[in-house]
Amino acid sequence: MAGQTRDAEFTDYVASRAGWLRKVAYLLCSDWHRADDLVQETITKLYTNWSRASRVENLDGYARTVLVNTFLAEQRSPWRRWTRTGTAQPEQAWTAPDQDAVLDVRRALAALPPRQRATVVLRHYCDLTVEQTAEALGCSTGNVKSQTSRALDALRRTLTLRSMEGSR
């Protein structure tokens, strides 16, 4: 009976947060298929540690930390655990008021080093404080500030160059 309750709690949580986890994963890796893989691995890790995770005060923060750590571990690995088979599937189209600007920001974000990208996503998409981001990444607040500063400078340079190229 306790196992059924545990599974039901886990299923309810994942059903309610899977879309959000997928969006965060996409912002980290810039590929919907890889994002799905990251979310699946995160969900598997959450299930394995559900007895501990379900008692955490901020379950979303715990899940986000698992997701970011999974992404960063994959970036450090010399052997990428994902492979592509068959032909590439077309990405899902997402319409926005200014599609070109959205694509420019996504390309610029994808060009950042993984740690800087994770910092920007946590700070500006997930709206975490410097302290919360440091906790999620397992580093100091000073490191979060410097990584964020460098990332934002790189984004500004990249986006400024693209806008200058577009106005020619």
UniProtKB/TrEMBL annotation:
Residues 104-155 form the RNA polymerase sigma factor 70 region 4 type domain. It holds the Pfam family Sigma70_r4_2. One of its GO terms (biological process) is DNA-templated transcription initiation. GO terms for molecular function: DNA binding; sigma factor activity. Keywords: DNA-binding, Sigma factor, Transcription, Transcription regulation. Residues 17-80 form the RNA polymerase sigma-70 region domain. InterPro entries: RNA_pol_sigma-70-like, RNA_pol_sigma-70_dom, RNA_pol_sigma-E_actinobac, RNA_pol_sigma70_r2, RNA_pol_sigma70_r4_t2, RNA_pol_sigma_r2, RNA_pol_sigma_r3/r4-like, WH-like_DNA-bd_sf. PANTHER family: ECF RNA POLYMERASE SIGMA FACTOR SIGM, RNA POLYMERASE ECF-TYPE SIGMA FACTO. Belongs to the sigma-70 factor family. ECF subfamily. This is RNA polymerase sigma-70 factor (Sigma-E family).
